[in-house]
Amino acid sequence: IGMTLDNNIVVLENIHRHRAAGRRGLEAVLAGTREVWGAVLASTATTVIVLLPLLLVRQEAGQLYSDIAVAIAAAIVASLLVALTLVPVAEARLVGSAAEAPGSGLLARMGARFATAYTRLLGWLLAGRLRSAGYAVLLVLAAGTVGLLLTPRAEYLPEGEEAVTFSMLFPPPGYNLATMDRIGREIDAAFGPHLGRDPADYDPDRDVIPPLRWFMTSTSAGGLQIIAGTRDRAHVTPLIDTLGRRLAEYPGMISFSARGSIFSGNEGGTRSMELDISGEELQPLFEVGLKAFLKAREVLGDPQILPDPPSLSLGQPFIEVRPDWERAAELGLAADELGYLVWALADGAYHDDFYLGDRKVDLFLYGSAQPPRRPADLAALPLYTERGGIVPLSALARLRETVDTDTIRRLNGQRTVTLNIVSPTDMPLETAVHKVQTEVVGALRAAGDVPDGVHIAIGGASDKLASTRAALADNMLLALALVYLVMAAILRHWGYPLVIMLTVPLGYAGGVLGLRLMNAVGISAGFDMITVLGFLVLIGVVVNNPILLVERYRESLAAGVAPAQALLDAARTRLRPIMMTTLTTLFGLFPLVFLPREGTELYRGLGIVLLFGLLFSALVTLTFTPCLLRCLRSGRAA
Fold first, then answer.
1. Residue 271 and residue 137: Cα distance in Å, rounded?
2. What ranges do the domains of the chain cover?
3. What confidence score (pLDDT) does residue 638 get?
4. Where does residue 33 fall: left (phi above 0), alpha (psi -120 to 50 degrees), or beta otherwise?
5. Is this prediction's pTM over 0.85?
């Protein structure tokens, strides 16, 4: 909202300035509009051009970027058309031809005092070339230092504050359904009484479990799954902590709890990295996976880790059926037929699909006899053959009892054990990835715990973060180049656009300081890829104020005004529109940053970056840009 008003404010303020100088009616409207239309066009063009490369981002975050880019660009182009057509016409028709008298109210007096103080400060800075150059260099160095030292570690995308948790509990191999059912009933009994409680009655110092909106458990012999929701979104973290502690009470089991994500799966969402351990043999994969699991817990503090397969041991009881292929061929059984017969008579085999209207139903084939329950029953399984009639399975194959895994995961054709690692909430994804690379994978390799033939790779959200950052970096460089070329074409000068572009680091420093400040006072915002979008938008926004100053400075020089006086005149006449446009944009961003509602957590970081980046750059630009112009003019004269 604030950005769309900027062009209208600049045009309208300049018309009123001409009215205050004694011009009347149409003369003031034409002079005021003609004087700033170039600056307004350049400001709009830079903002739109910065946003256009976002349409080229093909990663997951690009779907969010494209909508924002199109909406902002369309709104600003529309505001340009309104500012150069409807606003002057409305001014001429509604205000009339009367000249405008200078204001005399409280705000006018305060503005006059501020303008006087600002003019004196600027005059002092411009009094000497070395003073101007030193001040400009100091600001650039300070902005660079802030950017290098205070830029936070990156996240991928914000989680979204869903009031839902997903928890899982996986037993060691060999647990039966009765045991898992008993555990499920114990957890239901502990959490069930808190359903429907009033959130106002919750006291974290007294109550371990917050009020719940729902609580559902699903039990099987292979594990326990829990989906729970709180009545208050602020209580999700205490619920996750409580569930984690409760599930950890069951010895020998692997537990996992995470908040629901609106962008990706519920196994850690956009903060989850995948440690893929691949190779040919399962035994070394499971050994390395278990060592990595224990090491990651030690290094990351209190992470949530979900292995796939869930059990990091080859301890599941199995019966291997090793066919005697010569005997099977003598009896007329092919390899696929033998396997299918055993599958159908033992567990039931998938046969085909059946469509009932629009619903697809899987058809399975089962034997008419009771399925085998003991190894001896499996050995006696009757199989029909073309040449030998009905024979037991033991006549066609050798059965061997062993232990193995009931799940084999493959990645790019290789057997793989995957650790889905979610770092603690106070540890950014970029930091967690670095720790896993150096202190988990690096430590295992240094200790010789990764045998030949075993490969370890990090994927998941870390891969998406890296690819999105690379795409944004390319687009940011493209945006900077396009903005410079557009300003050079509009201003017909190569030096002035460079002066204007030097304000971009100041905006970046302001955005970084704003993020640090807001997180310090309890308004949480991560340095995720939507927040980075705010820095990209800043490129097109922070240059608007310097464009106004430079355009006015050029006009004064063309009118024969001395350079020093032209700088002071540009600063004095553009002070009011700069402050007005800055304030309207800041007030437009204020609710997003300081009055959060449902859904605003996604764009809070973007709002903080724009608010503080624009505020800092606007205040500093009022002195920084004139000092740079002073140095540029002195250099050309020399």
1. 39
2. 164-301+414-464, 316-404
3. 46
4. alpha
5. no
